[in-house]
Amino acid sequence: MEASPPTSRPEPLIASWQRSREHGLRPDEPLNDTALAPGELTDRIAANNRLLAFSRPMIEGLYRQIGSPSSTVLLADRKGMILSALGHTDFLDRASRVALRPGVDWSEATMGTNAIGTALHSGTVVTVQGDEHYLARNRILTCVATPILAPTGGMLGILDVSSDARENLTHAEALLRTTAELIEHRLLETLDDGFLTLHFHTRRDALADPLHALVVFDEGGRLVASNRKARGMLGLDAAHPATIYEACFTTPWNRLVGWAAQAPDAPFPLYDLKGRTLIARANLRSRRHADTAPRAATARYDDSRLGAIGRGDGRIARIVDTLRNCAAENTPLLIEGEMGTGKAHLVRAFHEDHKATADAPLIGIDCTALPAGEAAEAELDRAWVQAANGILFLVEIDALPTTLQARLFDAHDGSRARVIGAARRPLAELRREGRLDLRNFDAAGGRIISLPPLRERDDFDELVRHVVREVAGGRPVYVCPEALALLHRHRWPGNLRELRNQLRLMLALMGDEASQLCPEDIPPELFENAA
């Protein structure tokens, strides 16, 4: 049995063989046909529904162009798990003998050197022919794979063509790359996010080409999404393409917004920082794509509710990370934060993302509304039973007698509900005043989360824009920088709740035809108590 690839092979494949050995694999490794259980595969497919929905027509076109009954076109997720396979029945049956089928992991750690796993590791197009595969059983195949890049950065999945080792796939690499770029372009065009879409190229006729440069900015000119053509022209990192408009172009941002609003999709000159004159088209985006996107494919790339909470504030990002890290543990949580900072919203997002089963309950109790004495204890017991295997959320937990607090945390174990308490006042103060007994909470490994008030959040501008988009119901409304500066002056004692209510009132008074939120749209009384 050959222990290393022939020295004439490309260096990336030689390095891949070395990684395969480091993973503890042997070339004569027996077939491990372990696949995801049907329910787990369904969950994995649901998590990638947007990628699957928009790639399907392109994959069918690619299979027709390959034109070989001894080939299959595969789509894998960003971990190397095969999600779908399209091919002739006879070849699919043969491919299944080496576990080349949906639900099987084809990462290098599991399958050694192969096109899917090695493309996943390298981030580039990879061809692996016959005996270049690390595992002997896979040497009946010739495979070509390319990454599919996410509009927001990083990798979404892998597109692969696999065939009989005797097949000639020399034409497949270019077809694969073009198909991947078409998928990326379509995903970006229908992304349910952003304020302004900008198409550009060095040639006017290239704007009709589906592979021209395409970027999406938010209201503040921050890059939300981009395709690989745009990243190449602007010199952006594929994994982390974050930037701002002014770091790419010299044409003033306000002028670009004006063009997009007054003459959407009309060509105009755009000047970049390299001194080039580009031809561009721009339009203001609607957040609703009901006419163009499949219903099952409208989710953001980070489909998690927690992921949608973090909009650029470092403290919120750390809170989200903390919640994700403790999701597998049934430890209790305490959340402190002023009125309206989003404590209940955070708990709902955490529950939705990490509930053990589809029907795992979230039971909320307002402790200030509980009756006195034994009746309170009986009501808590009922709620505790109802919340089994889910979350028991206690609002204003400091209103509970400390004996009941201690009992709840002391009763904590893996078979019961997770207890999450919330308080408006700082927990340290409540503890000093004897209104919280956290000894059993500490013994159970409880975590404390502190939600910052709105006036201290770094993502204030993005939160304003997000709420405006929600309230406007898909109608593009530009928030002027001067309006943002004015909103910063208010102390926002009601935090996110107050912000949402005030912005809803402002947009209602502006009317349905207004396209900009300006300083004159902000009621002066909002600043009577401004700092």
TrEMBL record:
CDD domains per the UniProt record, alphabetical: AAA (cd00009)
Region annotation (Disordered) ranges: 1-31
Keyword Transport: no
Listed transmembrane segments: none
Domain of life assignment: Bacteria
Keyword Secreted set for record: no
Domain Sigma-54 factor interaction: 316-508
InterPro entries (alphabetical): AAA_lid_NorR, GAF, GAF-like_dom_sf, P-loop_NTPase, Sigma_54_int, Sigma_54_int_dom_CS
Amino acid composition bias (Basic and acidic residues), ranges on this chain: 19-29
Alphabetized UniProt keyword annotations: ATP-binding, DNA-binding, Nucleotide-binding, Transcription, Transcription regulation
Protein name, entry field: GAF domain-containing protein
